Write the C-alpha cells for this entry.
Amino acid sequence: MSVGTGTDSVKAVVVLAAGGGTRMKSRRSKLLHEVCGRSMLSYAVSAAAALNPEHLVVVVGHQRAQVAEHLESLNETVTTAVQDEQLGTGHAVGCGLKELPEFDGEVVVTYGDVPMLTGETLQRLVATHREGGNAVTILTAEIDDPTGYGRIIRTAGRITGIVEHRDATEEQREIREINSGIYVFDAPTLRAGLAQLSTDNAQGEQYLTDVVHYAHAQGRSVGALIIDDIWQTEGVNDRVQLARMNEELNRRIIEHWMREGVTILDPRTTWIDVDVALATDVTLLPGVMLQGATTVGEGARIGPDTTLADVEVGAGAQVIRTHGSFAVIGENAAVGPFSYLRPGTQLGVGGKIGAFVETKNAVIGDGAKVPHLTYAGDAVIGAGANIGAGTIFANYDGVNKSTTHVGEAAFVGSNSVLVSPVDIADGAFVAAGSAITEDVPAGGLAVARGRQHNSPGWIAKRRPDSKAAKAAAASDGATHPAVTESRGKLKG
Ligand code: UD1
Ligand code: MG
C-alpha cells in the first residue's frame, strides 16, 4: 500500500470553510484564529496536502476576502470555490467539485475548523477506504456526550447511514458513535449522491451525510475508521473551545519537547508554538512563550517570564525576563533581565544585552556588552566593545533614521548620547556624559561635555545651618578611601 508516499495520491481534497463562525463574535474569520501560532485553516490545508492531492479545494463563503488572502499566504497551491449561501454541507461540497474537471477516483472531505486533525490520520482513512474497497469511508469516534453530532447508523455492524442529532429519534440519540464530518468518497458515487440530495430535514439543508445512505442503498460498501484520539475530530465554534484547543495542542507540543530532551519546569505556564524548534538540554523556566519560527540551541536557558517570537537563540545562551522578536542571540550570549530586543537585533557570540536595554536593528559583535539602561537603535557595535550604562543611540532626528557605528573594542562612557550618523572607530574612547556629534578616530579620546568647576565653601556660605554644612565642617577633607583605592588601580 502506497498511501502517504505520494505515488498513489487522492484526486481531490475539499475543505469546507464557508460557515459563518458567528459564535466567535469576531471581525476576523474564525478560520484565521490561531492555535499554537498557526491559523486553523493552515492546519487543515497542511493535513490535506499530506495526501498529495491532485486538487486541493477550499470552499469559502463568509468573510471570503480575508480567507482567500490568507490562503494566498500559505505554501500550498489551493483552488478556492465560493459558496454564496450556506445551504448545507452537501451543497458546499458540490460548490467545491464544480471548480474541478470531471474525474474518477477519491475525494476527501474535511473541515477548515478542525485544527488537530493530522495528515497521518487522513492517510489512515484513505488506507481504510482502499482496503475495504469502499464507496464511502467515514472518520468516526465514540464519545461520551454525542449531543449535536450526526450519529452513525449500523445494521449488523454495517453502516447504512448517518442521522443528524436534530433529525434523530430518542433511540438513535443513544448511539455514541459520531460522524466527524471527515470522509473519503468515490467521486462518481459522491456526484450521483449529491445530485439526489433534498432539504427535507430538520434544518432544511442539503446534508452531505445523506450521500452515505445513498451509497448504501446502491449496494456499495460504506466503511469507517474509528479514531481514539477524539481531539482530532473536534471543531472550534467559540472562544472557549479555541482556548481548550490551544491548551491541548500546547500540552502535546510540550510533551513532545520534553521527550526530545528539553527540561520544562512548569508546563502549565509554558507556551510553545507548533513551528518552534528546540535542541537537547534546553531549559525553559516558568512563564516562557516561544512563538513563530523561534529556534533554541543546545543547552540554552530561557526564562522565567520571557516571550520570544521568531528569535534564534544560540547554544548555551541565557535569556532572562526578556521580550524579543525577529532577533538573533549568539552562542553563549547573555540577555536580560528586563531586556527588549526588537526586530533586527543580532547579538554576537558571548555578547551581553543587560537590564533595561532596548535594541532595534542593532548588530552587536562577539563579546560586546550593552549591559545597562541603554537604547541602541540602528547601531553597529564591534566585537569586544563596551557600551556604558545609560547610553542612548539617538538614531532619529524627527525625520530620518540613521546609523551609529561603534568600532571593535571601543569604549563608550556612561550616560553618553551618540547622535547618528556618527562613527566611533576601533579602540576609541568616549568620556562619560558626552554628547557625540562628530566621528571619533581609532584609538582617540572624545570628551564632549562641560568641564567641572568646584566652588569651595559654597555650602557654609549659602546654607550654614544645613546638615550638609555640619557634615562638611566635621569632615577632614580627605578623599573617601574607596575612591582613593580606585584611583590607585587606575594609575597602577
Ligand atoms: C456536520 C455533519 C454532522 C457531523 C458534524 C461534525 C452534516 C449534515 N452534518 O454537522 O453529521 O457530526 O458536522 O462536526 O454534514 N459548511 C459550509 N457550508 C455550508 C455548511 C457548512 O462550508 O453550507 C462548513 C462549515 O463552515 C463547517 C463544516 O462545513 O466547517 C461543518 O458545518 P457545521 O454546520 O458545523 O456542521 P453540522 O451541521 O454541525
Ligand atoms: Mg450546521
